[in-house]
TrEMBL record:
Name recorded for this polypeptide: 6-phosphofructo-2-kinase/fructose-2,6-biphosphatase 1
GO molecular function: 6-phosphofructo-2-kinase activity; ATP binding; fructose-2,6-bisphosphate 2-phosphatase activity
Species this protein is from: Podarcis muralis
Name of the gene encoding the protein in the UniProt record: PFKFB1
Assembly, per entry: Homodimer.
InterPro entries linked to this entry: 6Pfruct_kin, 6Phosfructo_kin, His_Pase_superF_clade-1, His_PPase_superfam, P-loop_NTPase, PG/BPGM_mutase_AS
Amino acid sequence: MSGAFGELTQTPLQKVWIPRTSKPSVPQFTNSPTMVIMVGLPARGKTYISKKLTRYLNWIGTPTKVFNVGQYRREAVQTYKNYEFFRPDNEEAMQIRRQCALAALRDVQTYLSVEEGQVAVFDATNTTRERRTLILQFAKENGYKVFFIESICDDPDIIQENIKQVKLTSPDYKDCNRDEVVEDFLKRIECYQKTYQPLDDDLDRSLSYIKIFNVGSRYLVNRVQDHVQSRTVYYLMNIHVTPRSIYLSRHGESELNLRGRIGGDSGLSERGTQYACALAGFIRSQCIRDLKVWTSHMKRTIQTAEALHVPYEQWKALNEIDAGVCEEMTYEEIQDHFPEEFALRDQDKYRYRYPKGESYEDLVQRLEPVIMELERQENVLVICHQAVMRCLLAYFLDKSAEELPYLKCPLHTVLKLTPVAYGECLNPGEQLNTPFLKQEACWWISEVLPNSIHLSKSFVLWKSSSLPPLKHVIPKLPRIYLAPLPV
């Protein structure tokens, strides 16, 4: 690295930090907030779509919140008896359900008009024209845009699978056996079918909507009107529920890592090469069908991938965050030469942009095409960099912008994410007592025989906070090798 350090892009007077007195600024993609209205019979994946869409919009910087009317109903009626509560001729129950919908709409109004939210996802069946008219009138009175998402499914296998995966763990069916749950829920669906009025291509041609048939086998899109709706449609047309796994790993230790310098484009160190070989052995042991391997354009990720001896695809979007004039400097040098920049970064690490470089916020925008393609793909191994891995994990784990820059992504670690239909999880990250080498501050993973692997006491279950809790199940044989973090 040359001795001359780069110049700042702005004068100190222009970069004085002013503490925020209100909520963080966010991109305003629309002049007025948007209500996304789910439509469809029960067990059609509406809540799954709602949560995935909300997670995506929040990740790209559009404040979004789900309002699940079913949760309002459970709070109003503490004890669920059976499907008869949903019969259209049960007037008392119909009144309760209407009041729950109105309560949810009041909270939508608070979120969009008072709390500066940008998108509210109204997660309910909304199967009657009367209910949708009520929502449209509410939106008109408050100046909100409306976009409908209707999930249509007539495949009995998909419906049965949804019931088994989601409804069996629903609070409505606590302490019920499997057969009772399936029987009662199918009768609940029949109650809704009696009054179901799908969006009509003629009667509703003035509305903005997308119809999703059988979990994405076909789509019908009508009158997309703005940027949020366009991105919503594009996202929904890319997601799928095919079983697959996504493996995330940083490159092996690089020469600049060894010297404590950030950025740059150096090759692997000796230990980095050892990790690349260990990673190759681990991937081979998994026997992953049709695995695709992605790297950045930087030497250290390419050299890590080459040890696999398989084709790999290079993505410039996966390059490490650009540190601008601070490239190839140590943090001590940054603090000495650019103390103001160092302080500014500490105050807002997500939005801070290196002079002539990037911020985490910039990186998220750069990685959006990667997320879209990951949603389209099946089994993928992504070999990337620390900041990039943090951004990808923040998307999958539904972490906020404030949490994102502090996610733990140590060197020589593999994470396996397994999206599941109607839910999504990160496989338990088993902290293993593996034979490993400790040299200075770097840990690497060696190949281990199955009978020598034992779970340590620091077993941690990673999950998305917005999704139903996962059962804490310890597998017979660990699937993933994680190096313990240095103490």
